[in-house]
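This part of the workshop introduces the protein records we will be handling. A record pairs a protein's sequence with a compact description of its fold. As an example, a complete record with its sequence and its structure tokens follows.

_____
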Amino acid sequence: MTRLSTLPNAREQARHALLLLGAPAPARLVVAVHRALFDGDLDMPALAALLRDERLAATPVICHGLTAELAPIHVALAEWPLDRRIVTPATARADERTAIARIAEFVAMQPGASRSAHELLRSFAPVVVSDAAVAAEAPIRAAAVRRAASQTAAEQLFGVPAVPRPRSGE
């Protein structure tokens, strides 16, 4: 028996949340935003499975945000340029501040915003980040972008596998 559904698939659900957030975000935040603001059933196992599937896709839509060391850290849109997908501590805080404002605007435009939408907004602690902190990390981000340019397209989207480190004393 087939089941018809009018709900978007996990890829589209994650994409909707990321478009609203506007920057790479932790997986739990992507799921929380989608659950509170959109119709769908996106959850952590579905998002994890989506990321595994996207790694094998010919044209991925969802990928990872990368640390300055090119390790996967957040969820991002593959269409975003590489420099936008590099996540440093200051840019993560600045992106969070921007996301809160975008979510608040989105909720304010909804005439009958749900209780879960208001709870999502209340869940954000005050986020403070100075523009100087973001500027100070600009060279780190630029260096990461230069290093990533020599990586494969898949590594630019999903990160570089961690190299096992030998244990000390052996």
